[in-house]
Amino acid sequence: MQLSRRWFLAAGCWLMACLVAPGALRVAAAVAAAATPVNTFLPEASLGAGGLAISSNCSSGGSSSSSSSMPRAATNAAASAAAAAAALAAVATGTLSLSPNESWQSAAATTNVAPGGRENLLKALGVAAAPASSTAAAAAAAAGSYVGATRSRLAAAEGLWRRRAAVRRLQQQQQKQQQQVHQGVRFHSMQQQQQQQQQSARASLFARRLPASLFGCMYTRGLFAAAAAAAAKQKPALPLGPLWTKRLQQQQMQMKRIDAGGGGDCLFLSVALALREEGSNVDAQRLRDIAALKVAGLAEKFEKGDEEEFMERLRLLSVLEETGDWGDHWSPSAVLNSSDIYISNAGAYFDVRTPQGKAKAVYHELKQPGNNHWGTAADICALEEALDVGIIVLNDSNGAIYPTGCNVKPRSKYIFLYFVNGSHFQLAGVEGRGGLKCLFRPEEIPAPLLQFFKTDTRNHLIFPSAKRS
Q1: 255: part of which helix (H) or strand (E)?
Q2: What is residue 171's predicted lDDT score, i.e. its pLDDT?
Q3: Angle value at C-alpha 468, between 466 and 469, nearest 5 degrees
Q4: In this predicted structure, what is the pLDDT of residue 19?
Q5: Confidence (pLDDT) at 227
Q6: 20 half-sphere exposure, CB direction, 13 A CA radius
Q7: Helices (DSSP H) in 297-402: which residue ranges?
């Protein structure tokens, strides 16, 4: 009777297991996916095609009697019954959907099950629940690291943008400053041009001085001329050097020299002092202006051929500067090679894009008093043409007349200068009954001096067309 009851109960469990086994298996899969990997709670047994493999060595309660052991079918039925019980519990807690399409959604929803029900279900199935605190900590750490990395990237991008904006602002400020400087240069250049257009440059004897810039220094002509004349009168006349003294003594002549001053203006001071013998009020600065006008070829407008002639002179001065044979404080090469704006040592601005503009810059530099420009043979020739005065230079170093290269032709008056050590001009004169004479008309020049000129320069001072004797 007991054996029949056992078979009856086994058949009932088997039938119930067949009905609820699919749901139980879905519950087990959902719980395993939500909690821990499968290999951490399942025994090391293979999964069969029909579901979880059940050990075939299960006994009926520890009895060794083969007569009391349950058949394999009964044992499987008992396992199915246990699974069914778990399924019913899952359905009761609301974590199981009997729809096959919603099984994985139910597994995902296990995180919302009440803590007690979920833990009991996992315990009934033999699955160890993962600690909630460690899972939450890991999730929080991952979220924190992601937020930190995002903030770092945003901060780096913002810093790069700020640096680029600062660089752009700095470049804009520099461009604005350069434009303001260029506009200022243009303004001064236009102002200077307007002033020079109002005053025509006249190359006459008493040509008025052209102000080249608002920054140019003003020269007090009257005071300077009076001081130079007074100083020259106070200085004693000195004899010429030994070479010239010997040469003159052979002709029974005597000449002396007067130092009219220096400081870079010795040529113009000496000529001005000589012209004072006839009551002329022309001073050294006016003579500088006259010479500068001639050397630069400056006029209101260049005549035909004047432009090329001036550029050739400027190129020649540049060559002298490049070879080192240049003592002035201004640079002709800078004027020649500049294609926009030239700024002089005195701070004057000149538009030198045209030959006319370059000529104005050269004129400005040549007329500056002092050591900015020393008088040269070019200035002597310019003064001869402007004043109609012949200037004969007695060279101290060789006792001969210095070849200036000027156009030799009859002049209304003549002056003799003494050139000392190749760097300083002094006024020379002939000692006579009335004192020292420094300015001569053609007929007043002593014959020995005319002969000296003819011998040293191979030319005639008064009659250059006459044949040499």
Answers
A1: strand 255-258
A2: 78
A3: 115
A4: 67
A5: 52
A6: 24
A7: 306-322, 332-337, 355-366, 377-387
Residue 143 maps to a domain? no
pLDDT on residue 103: 44
377 vs 39, higher pLDDT:
377
**Residues 355, 353: Cα–Cα separation, whole Å:** 7
* Block residue for tokens 């945003």: 154
- Res. 169: pLDDT tops 60: yes
Residue 41 burial (10 A CB sphere; 0-12, 13-18, 19+): middle
End residue of a domain, out of 109, 130, 151: 130
Closest CA to 410 of 459, 447, 467, 449: 459
Q: Answer whether residue 310 is part of any domain.
A: yes
Residue 210, domain member (yes or no) = no
Instruction: Out of 77, 112, 130, pick the residue that ends a domain.
Output: 130
- CA-nearest of 377, 445, 379 to 411 is 445
Looking at the fold, whether 228 and 126 belong to one and the same domain comes out as no
Quote the CA–CA distance of 193 and 357 in Å, as a whole number: 9
**Residue whose C-alpha is closest to residue 98's, from 33, 31, 21, 38:** 21
Per DSSP, helices labelled H in 64-219 are 72-93, 103-108, 115-124, 132-198
Q: The domain containing residue 46 runs over which residues?
A: 2-60+69-130
Q: What local confidence, expressed as pLDDT, does residue 161 receive?
A: 79
Would 140 be classed as within a structural domain?
A: no
Give the C-alpha separation, 193 to 260, whole Å: 36
Tokens of 122: 């996992």
Distances (CA, A) of 349 to 261, 332, 340, 345: 31, 15, 10, 10
Let me know the angle formed at the C-alpha of 462 by 461 and 464, rounded to the nearest 5 degrees.
Answer: 70
**Pair of tokens at residue 222:** 């009257």
pLDDT exceeds cutoff 90 at 249: yes
Q: State the CATH number of the domain containing residue 364.
A: 3.90.70.80
Residue 205 reports pLDDT greater than 80: no
Query: How many domains is the chain partitioned into structurally?
Result: 2
3-state secondary structure of 316: helix
Residue-wise pLDDT tens digits, 375-415:
989 899 999 999 999 999 999 999 999 999 898 899 999 99
Provide the pLDDT confidence category of residue 189 given band limits of 50, 70 and 90. low
Q: Residue 33 CB: number of other CB atoms within 10 A?
A: 15
Q: Which two structure tokens, joined as six digits, stand for 60?
A: 């009926």
- pLDDT score of 48 more than 50: no
Residue 166 tokens read as: 């600062």
CA distance 365 to 362: 5
